[in-house]
Description:
The structure holds two protein chains of two kinds. By secondary structure, chain A is mainly beta. In chain A, 0% of the residues lie in helices and 54% in strands. Chain A has strands spanning 4-7, 10-14, 19-25, 32-38, 45-51, 56-59, 62-67, 72-77, 86-92, 103-104, 108-113.
Amino acid sequence: GENVEQHPSTLSVQEGDSAVIKCTYSDSASNYFPWYKQELGKRPQLIIDIRSNVGEKKDQRIAVTLNKTAKHFSLHITETQPEDSAVYFCAASPPYSSASKIIFGSGTRLSIRP
Amino acid sequence: EPEVTQTPSHQVTQMGQEVILRCVPISNHLYFYWYRQILGQKVEFLVSFYNNEISEKSEIFDDQFSVERPDGSNFTLKIRSTKLEDSAMYFCASTRQGNSYEQYFGPGTRLTVT
């Protein structure tokens, strides 16, 4: 089955700098790649997603890139702010059933230093 | 904006007892999911549900687990005989379309098995 690897597990960046989180997936059939932000004790919330027919997507300070050949995708956050501190999960969704599951990576704890 | 809701927010139960976790998905959504997150770990897929039947389930979802949509609004997860290792946050999610679309997560039920 699908396996998603995520690096780094922790990341500390200076406020205003950029943060990059990288993920790889194993199942070439996966066609949907969401990124979730989870604050302590809260639900995962979608921040951006990308489908396999697109190589890059941007939403204000957040961008995601997808390399289908290498089976890896990355999250880029620019001009980081204190409220960006949270755990970020990448995920992949293989389309084998009518209700496709999401397979999550292990998470990256992002800390923004003032 | 409509949200997925879950009850209770916290459930404490003794080992061997049955628990039912309840979810109300977003009203026009047709695909439903349960995930769990052991404290400090990643979110793990349990089961997906569509058209009144299980679409897919993970290895975690053994005979002790069952799901049901007893009426037009609720979606439940039952654990027949809880074990200590069932202690986790359980998230319900729903989506309007089954493939390559955002899954909306509920706030979770924290299950503590003593």
